[in-house]
Amino acid sequence: MNIALASLFHVAQTQDYFRQEGVEVIPQPHITGVAAVQSLIKGESDLAISSDTPFVLAVLNGEKLTMLASLASSSRYNVIIARKDRGVLLPNNLKGKKVGVVAGSTAHFFLHSLLVANGLSHRDIILKYYEAGEPIRTALKNGDVDAISYWSNAVSLLEQSLGDEAVYFYDETLYSDNACLSSKPEFVRTHPEAIRKILRALLRAELYIRTHPDMVKKDVAVFTGNEQTVFNKAWETITFRLALDAALLVSLEDQTQWAIRHDLAAKQAMPDYREYMAPDFLRSVKPSAVRLF
Amino acid sequence: MLIQSQLRLFSVIAAILLLTMYFSLLWSYSNVTKSTAREQYINEIRTALFDRTILLDDYLFMQSDRARKQWLEKASILEERIAHLDALVSDSEHRELCREMLLDSKTSTGIFRRLENMQSNGSLGLRQEAVQRLMGQLLVRTHALNRNIDYLNGAFRDEVARAESIRLTILAVSMGIITVAMIFYTGI
To answer: DSSP label at A277?
Structure first.
């Protein structure tokens, strides 16, 4: 996951914390969390950092995954970017418009949330699915769609091409995006010490970000290819903290209800997400971070 | 003559020691008082959060307008208390937690305002989905507030224990010095 929400991993790597803790980590960059989870499922990677939505959809599709910790959260990371010249000035102007989204991503969930909160349903728009990155951005630039639901780290790129023609809809009351570290049960069972070491390195990164915020902000902005001023806005809304808590459980269940309601997954029953978590590892590294009751 | 000047020297040393003990005790007492105040304050915040949670149930289950108004009043009290706590703490991590708590509290009020409007607007199916989504977010914020309150409560409890321990150490050291000084003076 190549975005600011995964900064703990980036810091742990650049500060050499993984090696110092005695574990070798080979990063496998993906443009989205959806792709990172797919890589984990296919066995191409041992661990994945993704937002909670891809994790929920994978579990609902019968995949056996284990969440080890949430690494960061932000309630201003998702945004609808729309074109004013297509008559979209307010969220309810999206009615009848073509909206692009990356299927199964947090942006997908955020779009649905924004629609229902503004008295619209997914049937009121024409939903079009795109790959993340250049394809979806080009679709908006070329006018193939009137709006896209995306992540705020792309705002700077789109501002350059659309200028004042773009309008942005954020909504902190609708969704808090959680970046999560997950793995497969077999890997967790067979590599307990490696997982503890990785969590220890990430905990050191959490402390480092707290004590060197400006340095990390600059570094991550360059790493993710963002303009500093725009990136600052996104950064201010992120909380970097290792956790496995009740807030995360509620968020996972909220997204599960959405996925079931909109037939986005095979399973139609609410899983007990505590069974998909391995809290003992995080508890051994940071006891106060685990609050699952 | 020698004894007289020695006694004068000892008196000056004793006065310095007594003043040092006095100010150390005063400093440690003030630390204990501050830490205890912070601990009591975070407990008041927890109570306000608990009251607000009950009032939400009251509002949603009983559709009571009185509960709606009380929820908003309680939310405002909660925000004021968190802002006041922010002014009481100096540790960067604690300040960051206060900032998060304030944000969660303000966002909760924003969610509640939307819930109020949802009670009358939109089609039933959409309204149910929107209410469920907003309720989920309100719960997320409440859990986050509760988690941060717990964390700060633990930190302040440790601070009180540390301040108490320092105060006891200063008292014990002071008593020891006084005892040694008295034995010494008696000897002279």
So the answer is: B
DSSP string, A16-63: THHHHHT--------SSHHHHHHHHHTTS-SEEEEEHHHHHHHHHTT-
Model confidence pLDDT, tens digit, residues B110-152: 999 998 887 666 667 778 888 889 999 999 999 999 999 999 9
Sole residue written with tokens 């725009």: A230
Report the candidate in B52, B8, B27, B6 with the shortest Cα–Cα distance to residue B169. Answer: B27
The answer to whether the CB atoms of B136 and A253 lie below 8 A apart is: yes
pTM reported for the whole predicted model: 0.87
For A133-148, the pLDDT digits (tens) are 899 999 999 999 999 9
**Shortest Cα distance from B47 to chain A (angstroms)?**
19
In chain A, the residue whose alpha carbon lies closest to the alpha carbon of B107 is A173
Element (H, E) at B157: helix B124-187
Mutation for testing the A interface, residue in B106, B147, B152 having most A CBs under 10 Å? B147
Phi/psi at A32 (5° precision): -135, 165
